[in-house]
Amino acid sequence: MKIIWLGHSGFRIEIERAVLLVDPWLEGNPVFPKGREAEATAGATHILVTHGHGDHAANALTIAKKQGIPIACIHELSDIFAADGAESIGFGKGGTVELAGARVSMVNACHSASIDYKGFPLGAAGSEAGFMIAGDGHMIYVTGDTTIMADMGWMGEYYRPDIGILCAGGHYTMDMKMGAWAAKKYFNFKTVIPCHYKTFPILAQSAEELKAGLPGVNVVEPEVLGVIEV
């Protein structure tokens, strides 16, 4: 299995027969190298979107239509993508879809979920979510944008993820210290990958606090388009 950071909260996850693009914000992303979009999206089979904010969802429609692949996300947001001409797979929290051998379950997050990438807010589009992605002998928890929440308790016990992709840049989401606390309190991760950081000056620029708070856990500070093999 390969996990490739696309900057900010975007990831390319190659798992089972699937190539999943999670929140693939490429155009306008200040840390994504221009001219490498094709490399990031080549062979993708599905797109996963956690919520409608532009730094997660703005490029999903374009990529989906160009490559002829579906977007899987919460039902109300999927209707909006479908109305704009994309194939979509709408499901809800507690639901699971099988995507080319990978099983993707939608779980709760605590953030907000308006669409803001069309030049003005369009109001709520469903609600914010995270994903549990199972395949190749692993369970990956993609938090989406969130703070610490009590739901992490049952999610950790029920899904037992061994890999955590944690938003931890602070200001809009939990920060590195909170991410480490949540990981220790609710989960038994073997590998943790931070995201939603380094993109803007207001966000954390380092994951040192996360590393310091998780002794014995493999905390990987990803490089944009670098490959993490698990």
Question: What's a quick, concise take on this entry?
Answer:
The strands form 2 sheets. A 7-stranded mixed beta sheet has the order 6-5-4-3-2-1-14. The protein has a 7-stranded mixed beta sheet with strand order 7-8-9-10-11-12-13, covered by helices on one side. The N and C termini lie close together (6 Å).
Explained architecture:
The termini are close together. The strands form two sheets. A seven-stranded mixed sheet has the order 6-5-4-3-2-1-14. Strands 7-8-9-10-11-12-13 form a seven-stranded mixed sheet, covered by helices on one side. The model has no long low-confidence stretch (mean pLDDT 96). Helices cover 23% and strands 27% of the residues. It is built from seven helices and 14 strands. The protein has a single domain, classed as Metallo-beta-lactamase, Chain A (4-Layer Sandwich). The longest helix has 11 residues, at 176-186. Strand 7 and strand 8 form a beta hairpin. The chain is α/β, with parallel strands linked by helices.
CATH topology value: Metallo-beta-lactamase, Chain A
Low-confidence stretches: none
Alpha-beta content class: alpha/beta
Fraction of residues in β-strands: 25-35%
Count of strand segments: 14
Major sheet: size, sense and barrel closure? 7 strands, mixed
User: Going across the major beta sheet, what is the strand order?
Assistant: 6-5-4-3-2-1-14
Average predicted confidence as pLDDT: 96
Question: How many structural domains can be distinguished in the coordinates?
Answer: 1
- Helix percent reads 10-25%
Shape: globular
Indicate the radius of gyration in whole angstroms: 16 Å
SSE ordering = EEEHEHHEHEEEEEHEHEHEE
Distance between the termini: 6 Å
What is the CATH architecture assignment? 4-Layer Sandwich
Number of helices: 7
CATH superfamily: Ribonuclease Z/Hydroxyacylglutathione hydrolase-like
- Please report the first level of CATH classification, the CATH class: Alpha Beta
